[in-house]
Amino acid sequence: MKKVEDYVRSIPDFPEPGIIFRDVTSILQDADGLQLAIDEMQHFVEEVDCDVICGTESRGFIFGMPIAYNLHKPFVPIRKKGKLPLETVEESYDLEYGSATIEMHKDSIKPGQKVVIIDDLIATGGTVEACAKMIERLGGEVTRIVFLMELAGLKGREKLAKYDVKSVIRYDGK
Fold first, then answer.
1. Is 47 known to be catalytic?
2. Within a domain: 39
3. Does residue 19 lie in a domain region?
4. Within a domain: 134
5. Are 114 and 51 in contact (CB under 8 A)?
6. Which domain holds residue 137?
7. Which of 96, 103, 141, 157 is catalytic?
């Protein structure tokens, strides 16, 4: 029986020499790989108390939506700045070469709701840390953060140390 990591395509020297790019599209392009990835991530969600599932744009949507559907939970999209039509809460964070801002609707999380955040990859942890800050500002409690893949060499888990973080696949490098 294949494991999720068997569906990941590894591309050496991209985007620069010495880096191995872990390509999630090879999972998405295989029905068995996609189903296995969602099932494995969903298992981590089922283990905790959860009222709402949040997913980051865009691959957090891909994995978060079917999990929310399967568990009959609402799904809250966390988007890049400027993509949502109503009043939002936003959070900026640093990237390797610059910064970015994400936002979510101000009414999407109610005080006291227990929230699971879903994303495809944890690298430095900045995006999901910004998500957690917004959820907490709205009165929600982050009960777990679930990733498909973790690049442990970038130490993103350290940035998220106060949260319960799970990843289906862990790569020791960057």
1. no
2. no
3. no
4. yes
5. yes
6. 49-171
7. 96
Res 94: pLDDT: 87
pTM: 0.95
Please give the tally of structural domains in the chain.
Answer: 1
pLDDT for 48 equals 98
Q: What angle do CA 45, 48, 52 make, to 5 degrees?
A: 65
pLDDT digits (tens, 9 = 90+) for 116-149: 999 999 999 999 999 999 999 999 999 999 999 9
Q: What are phi and psi of 151, to 5 degrees?
A: -100, 90
The CATH number covering residue 127 comes to 3.40.50.2020
Q: Catalytic residue, from 5, 47, 57, 59: name it.
A: 59
96 is catalytic: yes
Mean residue pLDDT of the chain comes to 95
User: Residue 19: pLDDT band by 50, 70, 90 thresholds?
Assistant: confident
